[in-house]
Amino acid sequence: MVDHDASKVLARTRSGSLKLAEDSAGLAFEFSVPDTQAGHDVLALAERDDLGGMSFGFLVPKGGETWNGNRRTLTAIDLREISVVSAWPAYDGTTVNARTRTPLLHFARRFLETV
Fold first, then answer.
1. What is the DSSP code string of 24-40?
2. CB neighbour class for 82 (10 Å; exposed up to 12, middle 13-18, buried from 19)
3. Distance (Å, rounded) from C-alpha 37 to C-alpha 60?
4. How far apart are the first and last CA of the chain?
5. CA-to-CA distance for 24 and 14, rounded, in angstroms?
6. Where are the domains of the chain?
7. 27-31 contacts: CB < 8 A, separation 24 or more?
């Protein structure tokens, strides 16, 4: 999605156009950019390095989090959506990059945590 807008879907795991991977660094994903206005806009902004980063929509199941003071550690989540965001990403350390000349985006890994 773009900016958590359900009308701007870029890819889905169900169709195979979105690939997700988890490793010790966090969540990584890539997708083929669709031939839509939202897809063209995201690709153009990524090529210019003008995108803000990423944001994630998720639910935390019972027992899926621990707190240490103000620091929350997520040990389990139900990932609902991932969004390319134009301005203010929920996770400052995320980046969005155009990886190749073919319409494929690759996104940096980032832990799903809040401080």
1. TTEEEEEEEPPSSHHHH
2. buried
3. 33
4. 24
5. 24
6. 18-110
7. 27/56, 27/79, 27/82, 27/109, 27/110, 27/112, 28/106, 28/107, 28/108, 28/109, 29/82, 29/107, 30/99, 30/104, 30/105, 30/106, 30/107, 31/104, 31/105
**Amino acid at the residue 70:** N
Output the tens digit of pLDDT for each of the chain's 115 residues: 999 999 999 999 999 999 998 877 678 888 888 989 999 999 888 888 888 888 889 999 999 999 999 999 989 999 999 999 988 888 777 877 777 644 444 444 344 433 3
Residue with tokens 């153009």: 44
Residue of 35, 15, 29 whose CA lies nearest to 84? 29
Query: Of 76, 58, 68, 72, which Cα lies nearest the Cα of 113?
Result: 72
Distances (CA, A) of 30 to 13, 54, 63, 68, 75: 10, 12, 30, 33, 23
How many beta carbons lie within 10 A of that of residue 97, not counting itself? 12
